[in-house]
Amino acid sequence: MLPEVKALIDHYKFEPLPVEGTLFTSTYRSEMEMPDGGPVGTAIIGMYCDNPHSVSCFHKLPWDEIWHFYGGDPLRLVLLHPDGSSEDVIMGSDPLAGQVVQYVIPAESWQAGHLVKGGRYSLFGNTMAPGFTSATFEAETAQNLIAGWPDRAEDIRELDCRGTELRMPGDFAT
To answer: What is the CATH topology of the domain spanning 3-158?
Structure first.
């Protein structure tokens, strides 16, 4: 493990996010609640790196999620949209080279992410309103995703949840 990666893990007290794999720490969970008892808003800081392995496996959420790039090397988001289209988004600190520092992932789009090859780490944040709860998270098998987006089969195989649980533990909260 790179000393800088270890220092960031220790500083933020990162833990692996169940099911999808991102190293994360919760930074905000609204005390105000939605009618269903979920928080009005949530925020996390996350990190992708190779050692320890940290990626975001394909999952979707019922509302928009805002991503923020904080530092390190670029990261790549792979998005599979409900209309059958897909896109790649490169987040990083060089907007003049086409990298974005903030991006909104639309509700119901399948999303996955990872460190761009050759990078050391990517530090980022996510905010949601309404907030994240275990009930808002849904993963899917690679086979089912490939059926909808066959042209993205390579990415789907690389970033699927590896047949593990497809739902967050019921008591999990960020």
So the answer is: Jelly Rolls (2.60.120)
Q: Cβ neighbours of residue 126 under 8 Å, at least 6 residues apart?
A: 43, 44, 46, 65, 66, 67, 68
Model-wide pTM > 0.90 = yes
Element containing residue 29 per DSSP (H, E): strand 23-29
Residue 91 CA to residue 83 CA, distance in Å, equals: 23
- 3-state secondary structure at position 108: coil
pLDDT the model gives residue 164: 63
Tell me, what amino acid is at 115?
L
Mean pLDDT by 10 residues, the chain (174 residues): 96 90 93 91 96 93 97 98 97 97 98 96 97 88 94 95 68 62
How far, in Å, CA of 114 to CA of 78, rounded?
Answer: 9
